[in-house]
Amino acid sequence: MKKLIFILAAIFGLSLTVSACSTHDGRIEKSETERPDEPSDSDTDSGIMGKTLIVYYSFTNNSHVIATELQKQTEADMLRVEPADENVDYNDYSIGLPMMNLIKAHPDDPASYPAIKTTSGNLGDYDNVIIVAPLWWNNMATPLQTFLFKYGAEMEGKHIGLIVSSGESSIEGVEADVKRLVPKGKYLNPSLWILRSRTNQCRTLIEEWLKTIH
Questions:
Q1: Of 25, 58, 92, 113, which sits with the fewest C-beta atoms within 10 Å of its C-beta?
Q2: 136 and 57 in contact (C-beta within 8 Å)?
Q3: What's the pLDDT tens digit per position in 145-174?
Q4: What is the CB neighbour count within 10 angstroms for residue 39?
């Protein structure tokens, strides 16, 4: 497989100038697919058929910062996963950990997964999906698992990339989750692991990752 940097360059025209990442507080309410304001000429002139979608969930806003920077560099569309009940703290130990354990015990039962209000929209239009995921208790955040459980079959045959935001734990559990939920994806390697303490360095980390994945 060609390195994704050439795929994305041909499809989107990678941005030559990007701004530094910055973290900030507050949750983003918009959950519908977001598109770049001004698509580059290469989006319309390229002879290669294909599009990329960034799918992410963010609770503490680190994954939002990462996904936004990735969109700047690739001009991909972006979809934020939102829980159906925004008042539930799924990252709370007493709530989130039992839910995570329920998914582990019954991974094929739809009732194991928390409800979300986000739909796949026009997911079938995309050839590449890059997932930006927080790590919770060594696994993928549960609302994002719900999205992939519901719509993973629509990602069959698509190129799948993975970026994981983590405090300090390694990301093998999240990689296993995405491959369980999207078993027929064409996975790009390696995944990108961004420590929470390095979120403000995500511009450079993403630039280097796009040069190496294949």
A1: 25
A2: no
A3: 999 999 999 999 999 999 999 998 899 999
A4: 13
Non-local CB neighbours of 60 within 8 Å, separated by 6+ positions: 91, 134, 196
Mean pLDDT of 47-52: 56
Q: Tell me the residue type at 153.
A: A
What is the pTM (predicted TM-score) of this model? Answer: 0.78
8 Å CB contact between 17 and 203 = no
- Which letter, b or e, does each residue of 46-85 get, where b requires 16 or more Cβ atoms within 10 Å of its Cβ? eeeebebbbbbbbbbbbbbbbbbbbbbbbbbbbbbbbbee
3-class SS string, the chain: CCCHHHHHHHHHCCCCCCCCCCCCCCCCCCCCCECCCCCCHHHHHCCCCCCEEEEECCCCCHHHHHHHHHHHHHCCEEEECCECCCCCCCCCHHHHHHHHHHHHHCCCCHHHCCCECCCCCCHHHCCEEEEEEEEECCEECHHHHHHHHHHHHHHCCCEEEEEEEECCCCCHHHHHHHHHHCCCCEECCCCEEEEHHHHHHHHHHHHHHHHHCC
Please give the C-alpha separations between residue 95 and each of 13, 25, 108, 138, 147, in angstroms, as whole numbers. Answer: 43, 22, 20, 16, 19
Peptide bond into 110 cis (omega under 30): no
pLDDT-derived band of residue 92, with 50, 70 and 90 as boundaries? confident
- Contact between 2 and 186 (Cβ < 8 Å): no
